[in-house]
């Protein structure tokens, strides 16, 4: 559901997203709870949403759960958050099912997390599909099943979730849990890279550098590796991207490097391309970790 949101609210929702919670905003901009929330009056939002929640409005229940989860307008209380999420989840409200799954995962109740990710995934929630696939892949809360993992990555990919496109593409390339299809797989990894997903950008650079999956091309490898170093969060993945970029550069001629710099400025004109080895923190990879709230 969408409404006209203030700039301050949009910024707040971006922050909330990093905590793994999703608010449902009413279509009605005159809704008192939405108006109060937009103005930063979280206690007022609670007061407005509470009667609706007690009258079995699952959207209000979900939003109250988020207020308790984050301590907005009330004391932070995961138990109260879970109570309100579950009330809405039992009514089939997909956002609440997803939020409850995140909460259960971070409380290390993996079986319950898998239960609610499954419900939300079956309800069409792309991130729930992605996290459910990861649980099947690692055997967290469910029996390890590579075929089920590939299936749910595929469904997340069908929803055009970049993380899902990347993971499903990788499995198509490697024939992991699914019939191998290198062309379709590389197309999906490229699509995720073009959407700004850092892991996919790194993998495209690696493909071009090694001539794996697609023909070797140091210029394209350089362009993708540089973008990856500007996208991936600091840590092991960024170190790997920086090392790959250094390896690619060491094998390039001056003419190739010049051509690559020209192409890079065309595809990413705002990037500061002074050798491409400094890790950026803007435009960060939206999901560099496997856990919902990492």
Task: Summarize model confidence as the mean pLDDT.
Answer: 86
What share of the residues does DSSP label as strand, in percent? under 5%
Contiguous low-pLDDT stretches (5 residues minimum) are: 1-19, 271-294
The total count of helices amounts to 15
Order of helices and strands: HHHHHHHHHHHHHHH
Query: Roughly how much helix do the residues carry, as a percent range?
Result: 55-70%
Q: Termini, distance in Å? A: 26 Å
Tell me, what's the shape? elongated
The largest sheet is: none
Radius of gyration: 22 Å
Per DSSP E runs of 2 or more residues, the count of β-strands stands at 0
Structural class: mainly alpha
Describe the 3D structure.
By secondary structure, this protein is an all-alpha fold. 65% of the residues lie in helices and 0% in strands. α12 (198-210) runs antiparallel to α13, α13 (218-231) packs antiparallel against α14 (236-250) and α13 (218-231) packs across α15 (254-267). The protein is elongated.
Question: Could you give a quick summary of the protein structure above?
Answer:
With about 290 residues, the protein is mainly alpha-helical. It contains 15 helices and no strands. The longest helix is centred in the last third of the chain and has 15 residues, at about 235-250.
